[in-house]
Design a protein that fits this description.
By secondary structure, the protein is of the alpha/beta class. The chain contains 19 helices and 9 strands. An 8-stranded parallel beta barrel has the order 1-2-4-5-6-7-8-9, surrounded by 5 helices. Helix 8 links the parallel strand 6 (about 140-145) and strand 7. It is globular, with a radius of gyration of 20 Å. The termini are far apart.
Length: about 350
C-alpha cells in the first residue's frame, strides 16, 4: 500500500462524494471534476469483476494520480472474484473499493449483482468480508433502501446489520426503492419516492456506522442540511450536468479555498490535460463532452456549448477548439456566475 493510500485510509472524508455513473464518470470526467474540487471523493463507473479479471486492466483501471481521492466501484457477487478484483484495485492505487448493490438494470440482474443483492444480505456480508480480508484500504457498499415488495424499514436494517457485521467502512444509501421489474434504470432514479427519514433512522440505530446519503441531492445547500445528522452526501446527475456547482464544494462543505477563482480559470486548466491525452490518440470530444454544462446563465454559454458540440467531434480536433470555445464566454460573468447561482 502506498504512503498516499495509508494516509487516505486514515483521513478519507466522505462529507461530499460524486456518484459513480455509467458512461459518465470516466477518467476524463473525473480529472475535470478534480479541477473543480480537491476535497470531494469521486467514484469510477462500475466495473464488473469479469472485466477487472479478464479485461484490459490498464485501460479499464488506469487513472491520473491527480484524481485522488478516488474510489473504484465493483459489480459482482462471487466472493473470490470480488476479493481478487479489490486487491487489483488496491494495487492500481485506488483509495477505496465500493460494491454496487444499487443498479437495477436487466443486464446487472442477469449477472446476479447490483440491486437484486438487496434480497441476499448475508451474501453481501460475505462479499464485504472477503474484500476486507484482501485489502487494507476501505471497503464500502452502495445500496438502495429495498427492492420490489420488500418493506424498506425491515430490508434496510437487515442489510445494514449484515454488512456492518462484516466490517464495512461505510454504507452509501440511495434513499429510494429499486423496482426490478416494470421500471427502467432511468425511472428507478426518479419514480420511487425518496425516504430520507428512513436513512436518518438507520443512522440513529447504528451511530457507529458511517452512512452517506444518495438520491435527489441537487444543490450544496440541500447537501449541507444533511451533513451533520449523516456522515456525508453523494451527488450524482446534478454534479455531472451542472458541474459549476462543484467549484463551491471545497469552500462550502470543507471550509477550504476553491481551487480556482473562476469557472473559466478551471476550464483553462484542463487544456494541458487535453494536449497530453490527444497525444495518446484520445479524441477531443471524449474529454469536452463532460464540460458542456459548466457555465450557467453566463453570456456566451450557449455559444460555448455549440462550438464544442460541433467542432470537438471532428476528426483531428485539437485543444484550440476548447480555447476558442472559452473565448466566447465573458470573463467577468464567468467569474461571478457560480457565486450568484
Amino acid at each position: 500500500m502506498t504512503e498516499k493510500q495509508q494516509k487516505s485510509q486514515k483521513t478519507l472524508d466522505r462529507r461530499f462524494c460524486v456518484a459513480p455513473m455509467m458512461e459518465w464518470t470516466d477518467r476524463h470526467c473525473r480529472f475535470f471534476h478534480r479541477l473543480l474540487t480537491r476535497r470531494a471523493l469521486i467514484y469510477t463507473e462500475m466495473l464488473t469483476t469479469g472485466a477487472v479479471l479478464h479485461g484490459d486492466r490498464t485501460r479499464l483501471l488506469g487513472f491520473d494520480p491527480f484524481e485522488h481521492p478516488i474510489a473504484l466501484q465493483l459489480g459482482g457477487c462471487d466472493t473470490q472474484a470480488l476479493a481478487l478484483s479489490a486487491r487489483i484495485g488496491e494495487e492500481f492505487g485506488y483509495d477505496e473499493i465500493n460494491l454496487n448493490v444499487g443498479c437495477p438494470s436487466d443486464r446487472v440482474q442477469e449477472g446476479r449483482f447490483g440491486a437484486c443483492l438487496m434480497a441476499e444480505p448475508s451474501l453481501v456480508g460475505d462479499c464485504v468480508g472477503a474484500m476486507k480480508a484482501a485489502v487494507k484500504i476501505p471497503v464500502t457498499v452502495k445500496c438502495r433502501i429495498g427492492i420490489d415488495d420488500q418493506n424498506p424499514e425491515e430490508a434496510l436494517v437487515a442489510f445494514a446489520k449484515a454488512v456492518r457485521a462484516s466490517g464495512v467502512d461505510a454504507l452509501i444509501v440511495h434513499a429510494r426503492k429499486a423496482w426490478l421489474k416494470g421500471l427502467s434504470p432511468r425511472e428507478n432514479r426518479e419514480v420511487p419516492p425518496l425516504d430520507y427519514a428512513l436513512v436518518h433512522c438507520l443512522k440513529a440505530a447504528y451511530p457507529d456506522l458511517e452512512i452517506v446519503l444518495n438520491g435527489g441531492i441537487t444543490s450544496l445547500e440541500q447537501a449541507q442540511t444533511q451533513i451533520g445528522s449523516l456522515d456525508g452526501v453523494m451527488m450524482g446527475r446534478a454534479a455531472y450536468q451542472e458541474p459549476w456547482r462543484l467549484l463551491d464544494v471545497d469552500p462550502q462543505i470543507f471550509g477550504a479555498p476553491a481551487p480556482f477563482a473562476s469557472l473559466k480559470d478551471a476550464a483553462s486548466a484542463l487544456i494541458p490535460y487535453i494536449n497530453r491525452e490527444l497525444a495518446k490518440d484520445v479524441r477531443l470530444h471524449a474529454i469536452t463532452r463532460h464540460v458542456l454544462g459548466l457555465f450557467r446563465a453566463v453570456p456566451g454559454a450557449r455559444a460555448f456549448r455549440r462550438h464544442l458540440a460541433t467542432e470537438a467531434v471532428k476528426p483531428g480536433a485539437q485543444a484550440a477548439v476548447m480555447a476558442n470555445a472559452l473565448a466566447l464566454v465573458l470573463d467577468r460573468d464567468a467569474n461571478l456566475a457560480h457565486m450568484a447561482a
